[in-house]
Records
---
Amino acid sequence: MNTPSASLGKNRIHQIDAEVLATRRAGAYTVLTLSANQIAAAAKPGQFVTCSVGEVGTGLILRRAFSIHDVTSTGGQGGTIDVVVAPHGGGTQWLAQRRRYDKVNVSGPLGQGFKVPREPVSCVLVGGGYGSAPLFFLAKVLAARGCRIEMILGGATADKVFGILESRRAANSTTLVTEDGTLGVTGRVTDVLVDSINRFDAKAIYACGPMGMLAAISELAVDAEVACQVAVEEAMACGFGVCMTCVLPIKGDDEVPRLVRACVAGPVFACEQVAWHL
Amino acid sequence: MKVNMAVDLGGLVLTNPVLTASGCAASGRELDRIFDITTLGAMITKSIMLEPRQGRPTPRMAETPSGMLNSIGLQGPGIDRFINEDLVWLAERGVPTIASIAGTHVHEYAELTRRLRSAPGVVALEVNISCPNHDDRDHVFACYPEPAAKVIEAVRRSAPFDLPIFAKLSPDVTDIVEIAHAVVDAGADGLTLINTVLGLAIDPKTLRPVLSAVTGGLSGPAIRPIALRCIHQVRAALPKIPIIGVGGVTSGQDALTFLAAGANAISVGTWVFSDPNAPARVSQELAQELKARGVSDVNEVVNLAHAEYPLESDAVVSLNE
């Protein structure tokens, strides 16, 4: 069970009808740029937002969660956030079909973000599929601290690898990996991770993607004795801590795993906190 | 025109008829980051059991048409931490709390009640009897009049005489009026209608149940007509009993229909997941709905859907003008 006071932020959660400022296709995904000044101003890398889907009276009642892919904060009223939508169901398809000037109800920023190193160290950022999305916001913050950034972006096929072009700007170097070999190295992100760690003398790993991938990365990171944070993807109904559906086993200081809400205690965890085998 | 929103639930006076629903608002802290929870009539907290519980494995949730299934398994911190952390916080925050309790033996309900006797800020108990009865082959208390009554009797005996007790009834019964009579005769001061409806979702690809627990409780707008039916039936049979209506309320208009069916107060449950601000919004919309109809007191619309209110009655005439 969570300690509510310990895991809940004090910050207010904003809920707004955000205007869609731009949309663009990126392989199998759609990127939405939303006018969300208050959320943009407060957001930290690794945090997420939830969006309502469907028209008024829709039968789809639950909000969809999206990690914050990018933020522009002008300090004035023009702050925006980008989210990456993978259209695989009725709700995400509806979102991916939004056009400029449409409104989307957005709530956030939610959850606990990535912790960033104090020193300008070398970092490896690993993303699987649209799980790569939050790594770009993170890369901005790391770069501002002088960190060297290697990105490993993977996917089943080339169109499922997110952020290929953006990584040229966001990272010092990028390794692309596909399972079918249609782009970059044939295989999985874990096949190239150890090499990247060694080559760049990485002191921190950040990963986001499917749970199986995160578990495998976690194992390699522990072996290599490199600090690793993962952003987990759990199905959730509310996104702000009341529904108790997004729980996963997290080890406490006593090493005993307890079911903890990914939405308020996470989605970012130190890899050794997660009881992957449970 | 100022609309009176205060309601009297059998001696329990609340400044606002809009409440949270057990299991949909945790213990208030999370919601307080969205809106000022002191504007609510009361917080109905997530059902608490004696011991800390991990709940069920995931998946615990499945979205269904206009609703969702859940099988959380009453994950919670146990009564001691609930009192020391959650109730203390709610009392300091100044929110009237209706504490929901759950157990698997009659004596657990009694023990929970005793622990809560001197707990801060608790203005009433809600008894979640939709739990498996470990003394009777895990039959759900709420589905049979006698076990349901036994739980309420035990809670009534263990509670201070002036602490109102609400029994939360399950719609998964042949005759909800029979259960309502049984728990009221056993000492319930009021009823909460309704708990979730048992359902099942099957993954069309794997043809296996989506939820790890196989079945789950259906909630959301999908069950609103069932909630209205239960409230209407029980109100017709028990004209005086205070009723907290719950089940798919999303708007002030929905709340109004629950009042008309016979509810004296309304809980916003699953819609909090859809619109975290929903309880605050429903309360504002309800006041606007009443104002637009020229009704100055929320209590005037209670029971209007019942036949004994002829169309020429004052309240209805003023509504139609």
---
Amino acid sequence: MKKIVVPGEQLYNKPVRNESMYVEDNNTYAAVIGFMDEENRFVPTKSAYRPKPGDAVVGVVVYIRSNGYKVDLNLPFEGFLSGKDTRVPFSMGEIMFAKVRDVDEVGNVDLTDARKLGPGKIVNFPSAKVPRLIGKRNSMLQTIRDGTGTEIFIGNNGYIWLAGGNIPLALKAINIVNKKSHTSGLTQQIADFLAANKD
Amino acid sequence: MSEEVKLIVDGKRRDGRALDELRPLKIEAGVLHEADGSALVHWGGNKVIAGVFGPRECLPKHEANPYKALVKCRYTMSPFASKEEHSRSGPNRRSIEISKVIRQVFESLVVSELYPMTQIDIYVDVLQAEGGTRASAITAAAVALADAGIPMKDMACGLAVGKAEDQIILDLGKEEDNSGQSDVPIAISHRDKKFLLLQMDGLLSRDELEQALDMGIVASDKIHELQVDAITRRYSNLESDGVEL
């Protein structure tokens, strides 16, 4: 097992700027719990999601205004999708897959490129582990899609949308990724798990 | 009542501890399902549980700060925490003060600039009290904040130093707190050993205070070790204790 790093522990003796670290006197210290991977990179185990322009997010329409939509993004505040940026009309409670266009200095999120997702199940996943669930070039996501026949969209904000196929099996696979996200060779493990549990 | 009880006899305290010995301390992280982060601390006769939420929407909204997240803290004592009266609900003068000092400890640690317009809530409940609950509360809250994934510049722990029978002692229990000569609760950040809390009840000379604080710094490393151990146990055993979707 890799050694767990706690806030305040020194990571590098050179400045590295990142939201899960901070720099003091040209040394870099951890700001959240995490561990060092094989390439000596700091991997946080859990940290609150901070949206960046370009992030793909899954959101739910919670309020309709004359000029656009307020969207629940699993953040302290709703994101906003301007009516100008979408030709698809949304109604309350509908789910979208969108891109973050801009985040202003107080954290207001502007969305663009919205695409409607039909009825489906939304689950919450730790946003720090989302890259692991997607895998290198979508490998993990594709493995789960192929193994279960479920349509899956993963937002960087930690919302996952699932529809069709074997959803309970897909959720089990996602749970395994959550619990074993620090281990290596995980995509193969998931592929084996799905093959073994296929009806 | 006039019968004098010696707090220290032959260098041993009433519970058999040496002058610079901590009470038995156990810390557990991630004990609550609904909180973003949590910790439970057993410290001597103290049982303190801390739960952390956030960053989340700041309420009331007019308090929100566009430059940083607000840190809020609520410390409460349960009705069965000690022999004294705690049964009336709601904050009292003592708990408001302790909530404030805990808040100030973590305001100087949390990297609040990352989450403008939001608040981070720290809730500390004392289930059982035996002297030094604010120190236990700070020790628990630091672990809970780390468990919640809230960026902090450093870990911190709380502890008490003081004086009884003209001798400097560490980690005062209830009797030493009530009948000793001085009680100094402190909070120390681990890496740079800054004092984030320093209160004093009773009197100490300057030399005595320095001696007491040095004793506290040595002990803070031991408490930090236990905090790290609690976090390590929580995060290296995710396979048995991951969050179910």
